[in-house]
Specification:
679 residues; mainly alpha; Serine Threonine Protein Phosphatase 5, Tetratricopeptide repeat; 38 helices; 77% helix; 0% strand
């Protein structure tokens, strides 16, 4: 019985199907047994005993079957809803979200064939061909006659140049449904054409490379490429040979002086190859070959870089090539742009000749890529953020296009390239140096929600790459908290609560940034302060301050000063946690004026607690505060906070005045009284 119930609840469709068949068989046998029992006269005592055991067993099976049916019906409803959400995202071209929704649907119902085929179709759009094939195979386990699964698998096999396997998939469609002959013929023609094209290209390249072209100079090669009567494979081969001939600045100069850039405007076939419109495979190869050529021509050559960008076709097509659906075109376009972004002159050329208002969005989209395109795009963005004009142009599309995409990436952190996402978050944090951009981001409710969701998921996902995303998002939040607005105040309790949870992390970098976020979010809300104090923030901060580390100390003492400023419980907690104020006294001797100022402020707030001032009688606190109150710190707040703490100390415990007199500090105390009265 246990094995049968376990089989009925199995995630494996084959196991579940066998268990269901066995259960139905036993229920059928039960009905037959009842009929036989009514016809046969036997020893009732024995029969009733066996029937009792059997009936109990079958009753459990029947109950379990009903519960499973009810649960399946509920899960099927949820899976269908998620499928529709995925379909909606697919129609909008948002394939990452579509995949996410289909995956969530499969978590509800693992044997729903439509979810596998729909996700396979989305993977095809993302050029994730192996994953598409895996999903098609799962769909066929659910339904061995699923035509859509064979169709999509054939497409994926074709994209991988697996021509024989692709044909087999299409042949299965015809076997399942002979009426699909028209579809079968179209698919087979596509395979045959693609296979022929690849063989023709290989043959043409052999002819080009083995012929006279391979021995020609750069000037002669350019003359050959100027011929208008050749096919696309001829130009592709010639451009590859030309690229191979350019090895240093001498060949780059020869290319320029022999009017090499003119092939962009004089040769219609080559010109078309540099356009981003949808292409067949031969045109894709020409486009990629051209991009390799421009890289060879422009590497380390500022004059060639300038000339290339002066061509109208290049200016118009670069953003479109960046958005190409062909991965290799995208990859080589990124490589070309990287040449410009890596140095100041190249970046200025891009800013001067290109409209970069959409580039942030275009490059950010590539975080979805699982290959080198993602890191290349982020490196380009990182370099461009060094240009003020780029930041200015980013403002234009930030609210309408960039932030919706960015929040979507944050909420899909489990699905995207996490190394690239961490880099992307860091870039957005750097863009916050621009006040206008920072204000727009800080006022975006969805952005804060997405940041919090990523922090929440870190407790479930603890991989190194995800930890880098968490580290980056905490840095972004710190930058955004330089602003003050109603949205920040609204999320203050949630943000401080997440940071309190992160204080348990093993990664010291994350803990330090969590303390930093706390130090900037607590001033935004008294409620956040109250919740943090209830959660033991004072004791935790004292613990981190004892451990040292200037950055963590800076953030930690600031957080304590905020809590003790307005919360009596925080003041009492600090007096209990920091016996005789040993931690605060140590911080008062720091060389960092910010730490000293906040430590003096914090000490002054806590002296209202009964017995606090008395506990300092045998310490050198008077001398330390007197030194800062009468010192020459560049920050006047250090002097003021020290003078106020000194005054409060003597008011709370007059015996400290004896030490003050010995140090001739009464004049400083008298001058500090105005601060004491004002507080």
């Amino acid at each position: 019985l246990a094995e049968l119930v376990q089989g009925l609840n199995s995630a494996d469709p084959d196991v579940k199907e066998k268990a269901t068949a066995e259960a139905e068989k036993r229920l059928h046998d039960q009905e037959n047994s009842k009929e036989e029992e009514s016809k046969t006269v036997v020893d009732r005592t024995v029969i009733n005993t066996q029937a009792s055991v059997r009936d109990g067993f079958l009753a459990i099976l029947e109950k379990d079957a009903k519960e499973r049916a009810k649960r399946r019906k509920r899960n099927e409803h949820l899976a269908n809803a998620l499928k529709e959400k995925g379909n909606d995202a697919f129609r909008k071209g948002d394939y990452v979200i579509a995949i996410q929704r289909y995956t969530e649907g499969l978590e509800k119902l693992k044997d729903k064939q439509e979810l596998y085929t729909n996700r396979a179709q989305a993977y095809l759009k993302m050029q994730e061909y192996e994953k598409a094939i895996d999903d098609c195979e799962w769909a066929l386990k659910c339904n061995e006659k699923c035509i859509k699964a064979y169709f999509l698998m054939g497409k994926a096999r074709l994209a991988l140049k697996h021509f024989s396997e692709s044909r087999q998939c299409y042949e299965m469609i015809l076997q399942i449904d002979p009426q699909k002959e028209s579809l079968f013929k179209d698919c087979m023609n596509e395979v045959n054409l693609e296979e022929k094209r690849m063989k023709d290209e290989e043959r043409a390249m052999k002819e080009v490379e083995s012929g006279k072209l391979s021995a020609l100079s750069i000037k002669e090669l350019l003359q050959k490429l100027d011929r208008p009567d050749q096919n696309i494979l001829y130009y592709t081969g010639g451009i590859r040979l030309l690229t191979g001939a350019i090895k240093d600045c001498t060949e780059q100069t020869l290319f320029r002086t022999n009017n090499g850039f003119s092939i962009l405007k004089d040769n219609e076939v080559v010109r078309w190859g540099f356009c981003a419109e949808r292409k067949n495979a031969a045109e894709v190869d020409l486009s990629v070959s051209l991009l390799f050529l421009w890289q060879a021509v422009c590497t380390g050559n500022e004059e060639n870089q300038r000339l290339l960008l002066t061509y109208p076709d290049v200016n118009a097509q670069l953003p479109k090539l960046l958005s190409s659906e062909v991965p290799e075109i995208q990859k080589q376009t990124l490589a070309l742009i990287s040449l410009y972004s890596q140095n100041e002159n190249g970046r200025r050329l891009l800013v001067r000749h290109q409209d970069l208002t959409k580039w942030l969005q275009i490059l950010m989209t590539l975080v979805n890529s699982t290959d080198a395109r993602a890191s290349s795009a982020m490196n380009i963005l990182s370099n461009l953020t060094e240009e003020e004009r780029f930041k200015t142009q980013c403002r234009v599309m930030l609210s309408t296009s960039v932030l919706p995409l960015f929040t979507q990436l944050l909420t899909s952190a489990k699905l995207v390239n996490q190394a690239a996402l961490a880099h992307c978050i860091g870039i957005m944090g750097n863009l916050c140096a621009d006040v206008v951009i920072r204000m727009q981001m800080a006022e975006c409710k969805e952005c804060w929600q997405a940041c919090l969701k990523l922090v929440d998921e870190c407790f479930d996902v603890s991989t190194p790459k995800y930890q880098e995303c968490l580290f980056a998002v905490l840095g972004l939040m710190m930058n955004l908290l330089l602003e003050s607005n109603g949205i920040i105040q609204y999320f203050a309790v949630d943000i401080s609560g997440r940071c309190m949870s992160l204080l348990r992390e093993r990664d010291g970098r994350i803990v330090t940034r969590a303390i930093g976020v706390l130090s900037r979010i607590l001033p935004a809300s008294l409620s956040a302060v109250e919740e943090a104090v209830k959660g033991g923030v004072v004791k935790k901060m004292i613990k981190f301050l004892k451990a040292g580390g200037q950055i963590a100390s800076n953030y930690g003492i600031k957080a304590l000063s905020i809590c003790t400023r307005s919360n009596r419980q925080a003041q009492e907690d600090l007096v209990k946690s920091d016996k005789k104020f040993s931690v605060l006294l140590k911080l008062l001797e720091s060389e960092n004026e910010i730490i000293v100022g906040n430590a003096a402020f914090c000490l002054g707030q806590c002296l209202v607690v009964p017995g606090a001032a008395t506990s300092l009688l045998n310490s050198n606190v008077v001398m330390i505060l007197l030194k800062h109150a009468g010192g020459d710190a560049t920050r006047t707040s250090v002097q003021e906070n020290a003078a106020i703490a000194l005054g409060k100390l003597c008011v709370a415990e007059p015996r400290h005045i004896v030490q003050l007199r010995k140090l001739n500090g009464l004049a400083i105390l008298n001058s500090s009284m105005k601060y004491v009265h004002s507080t």
